[in-house]
Amino acid sequence: MWHRCLLAGTAVWLAAATPAGAVMAYVSNEKSNTVSVIDTDTWAVTKTIKVGQRPRGIEFTRDGKFVMVAVGDDDTIQVIDAATQQVVDTLPSGPDPELFVQDAAGKVLYVANENDNTVTVIDLEKRVRVGDVQVGVEPEGMAISPDGKILINTSETTNMAHFIDTATRQIVGNVLVDSRPRFAEFKRDGSELWVSSEIGGTVSIIDPAKHEVTGKITFSIPGLRREAVQPVGIGMTKDGKTAFIALGPANRIAIVDAASHQVTKYLLVGQRVWHMAFTPDEKYLLVTNGVSNDVSIIDVVAQKVIKTIQVGELPWGITIAQP
Amino acid sequence: MIRLLAGAIGLGVLAGSALAADPVEIGIGYLHRGGVKPTLSLVEQPAENDGLAGARLAIEDNNTTGKFLNQHFTLEELRLKDGDDAAKAAVALADRNAGFIIVDLPADALLKAADAVRDRGTVLFNAGSIDDRLREEDCRANVIHAAPTRSMLADGLAQYLVWKQWKRWLLVVGSHEEDRLFAEALRRAASRFGAKIVQERVFEDTGGARRTDSGVTLIQRQMPVFTQQAPTYDVLVAADESEVFAAYLPYRTWDPRPVAGSAGLVPKSWDAAQDQWGAVQMQNRFLKLNSRHMTALDMQAWTAARMIGEAASRTNSANPKSLLDFLKGPDFSVAAFKGQRLTLRDWNLQLRQPILLADGRMVVSVSPQEGFLHQVSELDTLGVDRPETKCRLH
Questions:
Q1: Do B111 and B194 belong together in one domain?
Q2: Residue B74 domain boundaries
Q3: Interface test with A, best of B285, B341, B351, B367 (most A CBs within 10 A)
């Protein structure tokens, strides 16, 4: 019944045509092999796109024209045309791609390949593989420094953040963090690198110049066992003041004062919260809830969950075009 | 704080000229017995390198990490033949610079090996034995247990059966010592979690071959008769570690009932079908290296070798004493594709771990089950807990 309502709704939206300039969020559904498209004006799912097997990492290209989605079990990254909302191409990513990051110009894509301990470098214009970097066991999290000079890869079983010089593609530093580092994010001013450790239950704050852990964010939620706190996705506001950290099966988003590294609030969202994306005006933050099959909408200023949207099965990644 | 320091030291090694120096060598021994016991199911017949293959994969993983920290891990295998002395073998491995020995031996042999190298500071990792007594009255301060205990396995199964509301059990026990021990653990689990054993039967091992040309014809007559006239029950629970009868029970019970324990729904530390929490990467790596699926013993040996690697990278040391101190301390945890950190019970050096329940094709569930609560860790609802322990570590 619910499905039918949704389908009927979709049909109406298509008939009315998507209003020009509407901001769309793309959500990868790991289990259903689809990408859900959410209109951020109406908070309605307007389309469900069939993609390859096990879609996880998902990002808009810098020009906002395409959405790249890593389909790990098909060993490739598919490219969705945002205008037609159809898969139009694939990228030579290497085996089992999960997360990836692009340089500021949107010309080079760096992909973590979990199965062979490498980061693959792809020329986005020519859509060819141009190199590999050998990293630790099970590469996962990817980030690029704001000046574009340093690429970060985290390896889940080696438990390190690897610092890779983007010019020479050589590792220039390795920093040990807590168990199973999954996600890396720079502050916009490049002063700090944050790395979440899913099994360790912490977020490490790293000084990117010194390659040193300078602090750790820990989480304590009354009534919840320590093992359930499993930090994954991280989002920071452009002003660098506030960070949001997804805590996986703790079913919460931690709001963190980015200067003091103190948790100021926990927001209850859906089950096993994974990743997140801001709307371009930063009014809203959308987070994917893996086990409850929905996306929570957070009002960033009010720091409240205002709505929940049903998507496909096991939603994982999310991306919103940033103008 | 310790981790911070370790991170800084690790970096110092890389950034400095130390990279040019020889890597720090960390020698690990692997002590096990030759020969594999025959299983009822041909597909479950263990490979000759069962366990060892897991340790080898962990050595590769440790060395991938080690190349960033200037550490190098080696594995030396020693396989005992019938009549070989485990104590002598352990000493021989320690003589060859193994500060750590992963052991897959029966309890008595493991204890001999542990006591023979205790004064040299060698640390043993029990990867194979599930005997509770090694963590209780016979515990040792130089033995860390990566294998789960029999009671952890029984509790993991019992929690699920109770959650499923299959609370009336028909318990069938084999006639060998380890079968009786498993039955004891199952009885304890039933009373802890509120199941009722409606009747117990013993299946006598009268000898005979496990492979015969006309096997099933006879078995499908025997098993219904054996399970006939039971009181009302929900599930047949079989304790047959000796591989004599349990695998014959599914689909052949007199009453149409599911089977669990040593056949049907089996509690174990790992299964080739486990694909949650990043486990596919692990299964793929193992398959690529060994051209076969990964067993529970492989996983237990992998975990043991990874614990050594983890301690070495966190302490930036190869010294068994420093590593043992770290493993026993509050900062140790290891990730092993089971959805949460694994830590050590400091009172008996047993690794806390979730228990998988697998049916041979799929992982049906993972215990601890929701709702079984504990004041310290829900993983401590599995097995013998601190207040009940008989272990005194010296």
A1: no
A2: 2-148+271-353
A3: B341
pTM of the shown model: 0.87
CA distance A249 to chain B (A): 10
> What average pLDDT does the segment A49-64 reach?
95
pLDDT, tens only, A179-211: 999 999 999 999 999 999 999 999 999 999 999
DSSP state of B46: P
Is the complex ipTM more than 0.90? no
As for how many domains chain B has, the answer is 2
Question: What DSSP state is assigned to residue A248?
Answer: B
Q: In this complex, which of B8, B68, B69 lies closest to A212 when CB atoms are compared?
A: B8
Structural tokens at position B337 = 């594709």
pLDDT band (50, 70, 90) for residue A274: very high
Please give the pLDDT value at position A4. Answer: 43
Does the beta carbon of A97 lie under 8 angstroms from any beta carbon of chain B? no
Contacts of A177 in chain B (CB under 8 A): 7
Same domain, B160 and B286: no
Distance of CA B303 to the CA centre of its chain: 9
The answer to whether residue B124 is domain-embedded is: yes
How close does chain A come to B337, measured CA to CA in Å? 10
Let me know if residue A145 belongs to a domain.
Answer: no
Q: Which residue of chain A comes nearest to B373, CA vs CA?
A: A225
Last residue within a domain, chosen from A134, A163, A198: A134
Q: Does residue B313 sit at the A interface (CB-CB below 8 Å)?
A: yes
Q: In what order do the strands lie in the sheet with B355-358?
A: B266-268, B355-358, B363-367
Domain with A84, as residue range(s), is: 24-134
Best of A155, A157, A180, A217 to mutate (most B CBs within 10 Å, chain B): A157
**Shortest Cα–Cα distance, B149 to chain A (Å):** 21
For residues A82-97, one letter each, b for 16 or more C-beta atoms within 10 angstroms of the residue's C-beta and e for the rest, the string is beebebeebbebbebb
User: Does residue B299 belong to the interface with chain A, where contact is any CB pair within 8 Å?
Assistant: no
The verdict on A158 touching B (C-beta cutoff 8 Å) is yes
The number of C-alpha atoms within 13 Å of B1 and in the hemisphere containing its C-beta is 2
Do B50 and B141 belong together in one domain? Answer: yes
A158:B10 CB<8 A: no
Over the stretch B174-226, which tens digit does the pLDDT of each residue have? Answer: 999 999 999 999 999 999 999 999 999 999 998 877 777 767 778 889 999 99
Distance from CA of B293 to the nearest CA of A (A): 16
Partner-chain contact B6 A176, CB within 8 Å: yes
CA torsion sign for B47, B48, B54, B60 is: negative
What pLDDT band is residue A2 in, cutting at 50, 70 and 90? very low
Inspect the interface and report whether the beta carbons of B341 and A173 lie closer than 8 Å. Answer: no
Determine, for residues A174 and B68 on separate chains, whether the beta-carbon distance falls below 8 Å.
Answer: yes
pLDDT tens across B57-78, in order? 999 999 999 999 999 999 999 9
The angle formed by the CA atoms of residues B112, B118 and B123, to the nearest 5 degrees, is 95
In a domain, B367, yes or no: no
Residues B85 and B208 in one domain: no
Interface contacts A/B by beta carbons within 8 Å:
89
Cβ(A218)–Cβ(A196) under 8 Å?
no
Closest among B367, B338, B351, B352 to B192, alpha carbons compared:
B367
Q: Does B340 touch chain A (CB under 8 A)?
A: yes
| Higher-scoring residue by pLDDT: A223, A184 | A184
Confirm whether B382 is domain-assigned: no
Mean pLDDT over residues A230-238, rounded?
96
Q: Is B68 in contact with A213 (Cβ distance < 8 A)?
A: no
- B contacts of A211 (beta carbons < 8 Å): 11, 15
Q: Where are the beta strands (DSSP E) in A30-117?
A: 34-39, 44-50, 55-60, 66-71, 76-81, 86-91, 97-102, 108-113
For residue A297, give the nearest of A276, A274, A320, A322 by alpha carbon: A276
